[in-house]
Amino acid sequence: MPIALITGASRGLGRATARALAGRGWSLVVDARRGDDLADATRGLADVVAVPGDVTDPRHRQHIAGAAGRAGRLDLLMNNASRLGPSPQPRLRDYPLGELGRVYDTNVFAPLALIQLLAVPLTAAGGTIVTVSSDAAADAYPGWGGYGSAKAAADQLTAVVAAEEPSLRCYAFDPGDMRTDLHQQAFPGEDISDRPEPDSVVPALLRLLDERPPSGRFRASDLVIPAAAS
Ligand SMILES: NC(=O)c1ccc[n+]([C@@H]2O[C@H](COP(=O)([O-])OP(=O)(O)OC[C@H]3O[C@@H](n4cnc5c(N)ncnc54)[C@H](OP(=O)(O)O)[C@@H]3O)[C@@H](O)[C@H]2O)c1
């Protein structure tokens, strides 16, 4: 059975993806900082190792990488856990640099550290790296300079890893807006009930995993499976 490591799987897109892959019989290693939420999210799923912890903690990364690479092969590393930064998000001229460092620790350095720790089992499997990106990585929105620049850096790391490791598939995956805690944090006080649920994005991600196109940057909206003509 294929095996995946998904970071940030207690809520939102990570949780929805974990449930979909578990339903397909994948073995999973998942994390999130709050262990009770993670336990709730994975209850009833077969073959899931749930490890509470913070991806910015090197010891936690060693732990999840050890669990994910235990079979000597890893089919999927999904770097999904993310930090928005302050809410509301400040302009760059006011951005606290200490907090910017924490945004980069979660969104850039932790994903690269996991790629480094798992390069051998990923290569053994001819595996896939999914870096969950954002439109804020590609478009310049006022207030999104911290999170957006971190996502842009993660996109570029993913692209360079793809060029350096041709046996892997490396995707930056932009899910689009989703009705999640992170999105609510980005739009404090706003009604976000019109945004789609994260489950609606999962078919696009599964298409990427199933079809394995050449490495690159993909938007979920470009990957949705067209409805059959009636
Ligand atoms: N929602 C959107 O509209 C949107 C749009 C574009 C891109 N994205 C991207 O989509 C991905 C998923 O976001 P989401 O909206 O699904 O977020 P979410 O619902 O807030 O879930 C985030 C998950 O990551 C975990 N997490 C956060 N920081 C962590 C850390 N340092 N270590 C380990 N786990 C951590 C959270 O659990 P704990 O808090 O317990 O750690 C939770 O399980 C992110 O990469 C985000 O940037 C989201």
Please specify the SSE layout and strand pairing.
Blueprint: E1 3-6, H1 12-23, E2 27-32, H2 35-42, E3 48-52, H3 58-68, E4 76-79, H4 97-125, E5 128-132, H5 145-164, E6 169-174, H6 181-186, H7 202-211, E7 216-219, H8 220-223
Parallel strand pairs: 1-2, 1-4, 2-3, 4-5, 5-6, 6-7
Notes on the protein architecture:
The protein is 43% helix and 15% strand. It is built from 8 helices and 7 strands, in the order βαβαβαβαβαβααβα. Strands 3-2-1-4-5-6-7 form a 7-stranded parallel β-sheet, sandwiched between helices. Helix 5 links the parallel strand 5 (128-132) and strand 6 (169-174). Helix 4 runs parallel beside helix 5 (145-164). The longest helix has 29 residues, at 97-125. The structure holds NADP nicotinamide-adenine-dinucleotide phosphate.
Quick overview of this protein structure:
The chain is an alpha/beta fold and 230 residues long. The protein has 8 helices and 7 strands. The model has no long low-confidence stretch (mean pLDDT 97).
Low-pLDDT sequence parts:
none
Give the helices and strands as they follow along the chain: EHEHEHEHEHEHHEH
Assembly type of the shown chains?
Answer: single chain
Q: What percent of residues adopt helix (DSSP H or I)? A: 40-55%
Main sheet attributes: strand count, strand direction, barrel closure? 7 strands, parallel
Helix-strand makeup class: alpha/beta
Mean pLDDT score, rounded? Answer: 97
Span of the ends, CA to CA: 36 Å
Total beta-strand segments:
7
Question: Could you tell me the strand content as a percent range?
Answer: 5-15%
Number of helices: 8
Rg, Å, rounded:
17 Å
Bound molecules: NADP nicotinamide-adenine-dinucleotide phosphate
Spatial arrangement of strands, main beta sheet: 3-2-1-4-5-6-7
Note the overall shape. Answer: globular
